[in-house]
Amino acid sequence: MLTGATAPAKESGGIHVSITDLRSHDGVVRACLTARPEAFPKCDKDPAALRKVVDAGERADFWFKGVAAGRYAIAVLHDENDNGKADRAITMIPTEGFGFSRDAKVRFGPPKFEEAAFELDRGNKQMPIRMRYIL
What we know:
mainly beta; DUF2141 domain-containing protein; DUF2141
């Protein structure tokens, strides 16, 4: 019997996110990765959420690295005026682009965590995300 042995850590990997269909080069693309359903899609209630901010262009590519194996969802905002929030018209209609892992659909509000969730076992995963705009 081994003494002083610890449980093996969950293996980590990376998620390569490719954002397409950005309507302009203005502003930035903000993304968050969470494993907590109650924190999705804003990730503000998850201190362990991973966040990325990259310049907008025809497309945006970035990595979430060192991600432990688990079930995750990604939410993306094209923050065209770079004010750090999702702007809305008439208090509820998004005026900026958004997208979700697994191309989860939007119906009268953002998708549920389970609709956007995917498994990361180990190694690297590709996650294409298509931006959508309502206005």
